[in-house]
Amino acid sequence: MPNSLLSRIPVDQLPEDLRRLHESSIAVAGDGDRLEIFGNHPALYRWYQGNFYGSIFQNGQGDMVVETKWKELIRLKLSLTNGCFVCNAHNVPAALAAGYSQAQIDAMGDAESPLFSAQEQAVLALGEVFAITNGDGALTPELYARLSAFFSDAQILELGFVATILSGWTKLIFAYDMVTRECPINSPERALAPSEVHVR
Predict the structure, then answer these.
(1) Which residues pair with 84 in a beta bridge?
(2) What is the tens place of the pLDDT at every residue in 32-46?
(3) Pairwise CA distance, residues 21 & 11, whole Å
(4) What pLDDT digit, counting tens, does each position of 82-106 carry?
(5) Is 127 exposed, middle or buried (0-12, 13-18, 19+ CB in 10 A)?
(6) What is the mean pLDDT of the segment spanning 70-75?
(7) What domains does the chain contain, in order, with CATH numbers?
(8) Do 158 and 65 form a contact (C-beta atoms < 8 A)?
(9) Is the model more confident about 2 or about 91?
(10) Are the CB atoms for 172 and 79 separated by under 8 Å?
(11) Three-state secondary structure along the chain?
């Protein structure tokens, strides 16, 4: 269980919208700790849900240029790499709903797996660039060429922006100990397929 130094707001004192999200997160992942902590500053969580997820990730205002399925792919790549149990509990079903197979999800650790199309492989490779485990990640000429075979520069920017927000969010919730984590990032278990990783 997370052991944040930040105070928690009792669930019955959370604003209604955060209370509903807390109930949903408990149902999906058995963990609503981050919502109790964000009860200290609900506006921040509302920005993340509404502006990032509502407008950018899910294209709620219609002015984004990347289909949500590619954002789902890079999001799952990041959460599996970074090892956030709560994120994975939400992101695996979302990736399945977006059309990715369980076999593909289990192969996420290998961005070059033949289970993925060349376009999917390029997006997964971009995800590796933005993982919090990769301090030296960069868009190389080779990766840019792979991506630009399928995406415009505007789309590559959008994918990178989405990955940046997601990785920054992961850093925040890990640094402030707001969520249950899977195996430590550098442990041998991190190489296991998602279905084999156990919560610690």
Answers:
(1) 181
(2) 999 999 999 999 999
(3) 11
(4) 888 899 999 999 999 999 999 999 9
(5) buried
(6) 98
(7) 8-64 (no CATH), 66-200 (1.20.1290.10)
(8) yes
(9) 91
(10) no
(11) CCCCCCCCCCHHHCCHHHHHHHHHHHHHHCCCHHHHHHCCCHHHHHHHHHHHHHHHHCCCCCCCCCCHHHHHHHHHHHHHHHCEHHHHHHHHHHHHHCCCCHHHHHCCCCCCCCCCCHHHHHHHHHHHHHCCCCCCCCCCHHHHHHHHCCCCHHHHHHHHHHHHHHHHHHHHHHHCCCCCECCCCCCHHHHCCHHHCCCC
Its pTM surpasses 0.85: yes
Q: Which two tokens stand for residue 8?
A: 């928690």
What's the whole-number average pLDDT of the chain?
Answer: 91
Query: Which amino acid appears at position 121 of this protein?
Result: Q
Distance CA 12, CA 173 (A): 22
Cβ within 8 Å of residue 52, ≥6 positions away: 165
